[in-house]
Specification:
This protein has six helices and 44 strands. The chain is mainly beta. The chain has five domains: about 180 residues, Jelly Rolls (Sandwich), CATH 2.60.120; about 70 residues; about 90 residues, Jelly Rolls (Sandwich); about 140 residues, Jelly Rolls (Sandwich); about 160 residues, Immunoglobulins (Immunoglobulin-like). The strands form nine sheets. Strands 1, 9, 10, 12, 15, 16 and 18 form a seven-stranded mixed β-sheet that branches. Strands 19, 20, 21, 22, 23, 24 and 25 form a seven-stranded mixed β-sheet that branches. Strands 37, 39, 40, 42, 43 and 44 form a six-stranded antiparallel β-sheet that branches. A hairpin with a 2-residue loop joins strand 4 and strand 5. Helix 3 packs across helix 6. The longest helix has about 40 residues.
Length: about 725
C-alpha cells in the first residue's frame, strides 16, 4: 500500500510541474472561424444587431456586457425597464419572461455582447476526497487540431468566435455567498485541457486539484482576476497536460457574493502516430505531443517553420527496418529548422512537443546530378562492388549539377563515367568546374577493368582562373572526384549550413574507335546453325515445288483439252444437261489458264472454230461468242478473246471492245482478273510467244463489237484491229 502511495505522490508532483510550466497569458488579435467537428458546431451570434432577447425564468440570474466605445444599451423584462442606460447588467429576475437588450449604436461601431443567462447554481460547496463520488461537468472534446488552433494567436489558443456563454464550450456558475464551489472534470492520460476565464461579474479565483482513486494533488491557483473581467478584454489562458487517469477538481472562489462566472474549457485528446504526406498537406497542428511519420528517402531534407511558438522536437530515421535516433531540440520561428535523413533512410519519425504548435514544412532534395543519390566521397574499392549509388556523368550532356551538403559533412563527391565502345578504343574526356572554384579540387581516375588498378590519375586545382582536367581513357568505368579543400568549419551533423553548389561542364571526343570484336561460335551454335540452314533451305524450296506441281497439273489438263476439241460446244451441252452456270464458269476459268500453255493453233482448235479471227506477222487475235446462259450478270453478252504475240514485245497493251454502231459497250467482268475500265481491258506487258485468253461480259444495247489491240510494240506505238466485226446475233441464228 505504501508503494502505491509513493507512486501516486510521484505522479502528482510531475503533474504539478507540468501545469506550472504550461501557464501563459496572451492577447487575441482577431477572431477566426471555428469549423464543425463531429456533431458539435459553434454558432456565431450577430452581436452588431440592435436587439438581443433571452427567455428567463423567475429566480434566475443574468450577467450581460456590451463592449463598445460610444454606444449605450437598456435592459427590459417584457415591458418593464430594468436598466435604462448602461453597458454592464447583472441581476436576478423575480418573474419569468423575455429579457430584452436594446442597443443604441448611432455611430455604427462594431459591438460585442457577452451574455451569461441562468448559470448553474447547484455545484457542490465541499471539495470531494479522492475516490468519493462527485458530479462531473461535460467538457467539449476537440478531436481535430486543425480546427482548434488559431494560427494568428500568439500561443495558438482556440478562439471560438462566440460571446454566448451558454454554449457547450463553457462551464458557468453562481457564487451566491463567499463559499467556494467545486466543479469536477474527468481526464485521461494524454489529454490537454485548455482553460480561460470567459466572464466574471466580480473578482474570481480558480484553483485546481488532481485526484485519482487514492490521493489528491494541489495544482495551484492558475486563473485569477481581482475585478470584473471577460475573455475579450483579458483572455487569460492556460494549457494543462494530463499525465494520469483521474479527475480535475476546479475550485471557484470570490470575495463578493452573487458572482456570476464562466470558464471556457476545451479538451484536446491525444492522437496516435500518423503518416504525414507532405505533397498533400504541408502544415501540422497539435497540442502537448504529436508524432508523425514521413515517407521519404535519404536525399530529401525537411525544413520546418513554427509559425508562432518555439516547438520541441525529436526525430528518428528508419534504416534497414530499425528506428535510429538522430537529434532533438527546440525549433525556433526565427530561423530555419532542418531535419536531415541518415544514409539509406526510408522514413523519418518526428515527435513534436509543446502546449500548442503549428508548423509549416517544405522539402529540399540534395541529390547530386539528378541521380537520386548523394555522391559518395571515394570510388568503390573493388571491381565487384555495386557502383549503382555512384551518380553517372552523361558524357553526351554538356553540364551536370551537384552540391556539397555541408550540414551532413558532405565535402567530397565522386561520379562515375561509363564508356561503352570497342576494344582498344580511345576517348578524350575533359571536365571544367563552375562555382566557388578557389575552394575546390578535382581529380580524374582511369581504371583498368581487368584488375581495377589505376591506369592514370590527375589532380588539379585552380590555374589561371580555371579549374579543369582532361585525360584520354579506354572503354570501361572511370571516376571523377570533386572535393572541398581547406574546409575547416566545425559543424555538428544535421546543423544547417548553406550548401556549396557547383556545375561540371563536360567535353567528350572519340579519338580511336578501336577494333570491332569477333567471337567464334561455340559447338551448340554450329550444331543448331547447321540444322537451321537445312530447315530454312527446305522451306525456301517449298514454293518452287508447289509451282512445279501446279505447272505440271496445268500441262496435263491442257493435253486433255487438246484431245477433246470443241470445248465451247461441250460447255453448252453441260448447260443443256442442267449443270449450273456457276459451275460452268469455274470450268471455263480453269480452261482459260490451261489452254494458254498449248500452241496457238491447238489452243484455237480446242475451243472450236473462232467466230472472228485476225493474224499479221506480229500478232494473232481470235474471238468466240459464248452461250448467254453462262454470263454472271443478267442481260450481259459473254464472249471469249485470245491474243497471241508472234513478234515483238508489247508494253502498256490493252484490248478495246468498240461498238461500231449504237451505244458504247461497258465491260461488266473479265476472267482471269485483269484491270478494265469502260470498254478497255488492260493486259500490260506481253512478250514473244505470250498467249492470253480472257472471257468478257459486255453490257449495252449495241449489236456488234470490233476488237482492237493497242499499246507500244518495241517502244513504238502500235495497234491491231480485227478486220471482221463480231455480231451478237448472226444472220444464221
Amino acid at each position: 500500500m505504501q508503494r502505491v502511495k509513493r507512486l501516486a505522490y510521484g505522479k502528482a508532483i510531475a503533474l504539478v510541474l507540468l501545469v506550472f510550466c504550461s501557464i501563459y497569458s496572451f492577447s487575441i488579435n482577431k477572431p477566426v472561424d471555428f469549423y464543425e467537428t463531429e456533431n458539435n458546431q459553434v454558432k456565431l451570434s450577430d452581436n452588431n444587431s440592435n436587439n438581443h432577447q433571452w427567455n428567463i425564468a423567475a429566480g434566475q440570474w443574468y450577467s450581460i456586457e456590451v463592449l463598445c466605445d460610444t454606444c449605450t444599451a437598456g435592459l427590459k423584462l417584457d415591458e418593464t425597464t430594468l436598466v435604462e442606460t448602461a453597458r454592464m447588467f447583472t441581476g436576478q429576475v423575480n418573474i419569468s419572461g423575455n429579457l430584452e437588450l436594446i442597443i443604441d449604436n448611432n455611430n455604427g461601431e462594431e459591438v460585442e455582447v457577452i451574455s451569461l443567462i441562468a448559470p448553474n447554481e447547484n455545484y457542490p460547496t465541499v471539495r470531494p476526497s479522492p475516490g468519493e463520488i462527485h458530479p462531473l461537468a461535460e467538457v467539449y472534446d476537440c478531436d481535430n487540431s486543425d480546427s482548434c488552433i488559431d494560427t494568428e494567436s500568439s500561443i495558438l489558443a482556440t478562439y471560438l468566435g462566440s460571446s454566448d456563454l451558454n454554449e457547450e464550450f463553457y462551464v458557468n456558475g453562481l457564487l451566491e455567498s463567499e463559499q467556494s464551489e467545486f466543479v469536477g472534470i474527468e481526464v485521461e492520460v494524454g489529454d490537454s485541457l485548455e482553460l480561460s476565464i470567459a466572464h466574471s461579474s466580480s473578482d474570481i479565483d480558480f484553483e485546481l486539484y488532481f485526484q485519482d482513486e487514492l490521493i489528491e494533488s494541489y495544482l495551484g491557483s492558475i486563473l485569477t482576476s481581482s475585478t470584473r473581467t471577460n475573455f475579450l478584454e483579458n483572455p487569460n489562458v492556460v494549457f494543462i497536460p494530463v499525465t494520469d487517469n483521474g479527475r480535475i477538481i476546479i475550485k471557484a472562489t470570490s470575495q463578493n457574493v452573487n458572482t456570476l462566472w464562466s470558464l471556457k474549457i476545451l479538451n484536446h485528446p491525444p492522437v496516435s502516430s500518423m503518416m504525414w504526406n507532405l505533397s498533400d498537406q504541408n502544415e501540422i497542428y497539435g497540442h502537448t505531443s504529436k508524432t508523425v511519420i514521413i515517407d521519404t528517402n535519404d536525399t530529401t531534407a525537411i525544413m520546418l517553420n513554427p509559425t508562432n511558438l518555439a516547438t520541441g522536437y525529436s526525430y528518428h530515421c528508419l534504416v534497414g527496418g530499425t528506428w535510429l535516433a538522430v537529434a532533438e531540440g527546440i525549433m525556433d520561428s526565427e530561423k530555419e529548422n532542418w531535419l536531415f535523413p541518415l544514409p539509406n533512410s526510408s522514413a523519418i519519425r518526428v515527435e513534436f512537443t509543446g502546449s500548442a504548435f503549428h508548423l509549416v514544412a517544405q522539402t529540399e532534395n540534395f541529390a547530386d546530378g539528378k541521380s537520386g543519390y548523394d555522391a559518395p566521397s571515394l570510388p568503390p574499392m573493388r571491381i565487384t562492388s555495386d557502383n549503382s549509388s555512384w551518380p553517372t556523368i552523361d558524357l553526351t550532356k554538356p553540364t551536370t549539377n551537384g552540391e556539397f551538403t555541408t550540414s551532413i559533412g558532405d565535402t567530397a563527391d565522386v561520379y562515375k563515367m561509363e564508356i561503352t565502345a570497342w576494344e582498344d578504343s580511345v576517348h578524350f574526356v575533359k571536365f571544367e568546374i563552375e562555382g566557388d572554384i578557389e575552394s575546390l579540387e578535382i581529380e580524374m581516375i582511369s581504371k583498368d577493368m581487368d584488375d581495377w588498378s589505376e591506369i592514370e590519375s590527375k589532380t588539379r586545382t585552380v590555374v589561371f582562373g580555371k579549374l579543369q582536367v582532361a585525360m584520354e581513357v579506354p572503354r570501361g568505368t572511370h571516376f571523377f572526384r570533386i572535393s572541398l579543400i581547406n574546409y575547416t568549419a566545425n559543424i555538428d551533423w544535421g546543423n544547417y549550413t548553406p550548401p556549396i553548389e557547383y556545375t561540371i561542364i563536360t567535353t567528350y571526343q572519340l579519338v580511336d574507335e578501336g577494333e570491332e570484336p569477333w567471337f567464334p561460335p561455340d559447338e551448340n551454335a554450329e550444331k543448331w546453325g547447321s540444322i537451321a540452314r537445312w530447315v530454312m533451305g527446305f522451306l525456301f524450296l517449298i514454293p518452287a515445288i508447289y509451282l512445279l506441281i501446279s505447272v505440271q497439273k496445268k500441262k496435263s489438263f491442257a493435253e486433255r483439252l487438246k484431245s477433246k476439241k470443241q470445248r465451247l460446244n461441250w460447255l453448252k451441252l453441260q448447260l443443256d444437261k442442267g449443270v449450273s452456270p456457276q459451275q460452268n464458269r469455274r470450268l471455263l476459268a480453269k480452261s482459260l489458264e490451261a489452254v494458254a500453255i498449248l500452241d496457238w493453233e491447238d489452243a484455237c482448235e480446242t475451243w472450236g472454230e473462232a467466230d472472228v479471227s485476225y493474224r499479221t506477222e506480229n500478232v494473232a487475235i481470235a474471238a468466240w461468242k459464248l452461250d448467254p446462259r453462262i454470263a454472271k450478270n443478267d442481260g450481259s453478252w459473254p464472249i471469249m478473246i485470245g491474243v497471241y504475240i508472234i513478234k515483238g514485245s508489247w508494253e502498256i497493251s490493252a484490248l478495246r471492245l468498240d461498238s461500231p454502231k449504237g451505244q458504247a459497250w461497258n465491260i461488266d467482268s473479265v476472267t482471269p482478273r485483269f484491270l478494265f475500265s469502260g470498254d478497255e481491258i488492260f493486259l500490260d506487258s506481253m512478250n514473244v510467244g505470250n498467249k492470253t485468253f480472257v472471257s468478257v461480259e459486255l453490257s449495252g444495247t449495241a449489236t456488234s463489237v470490233d476488237i482492237e489491240l493497242n499499246g507500244r510494240m518495241d517502244g513504238e506505238p502500235a495497234a491491231s484491229r480485227v478486220a471482221a466485226t463480231l455480231y451478237r446475233i448472226s444472220e444464221e441464228e
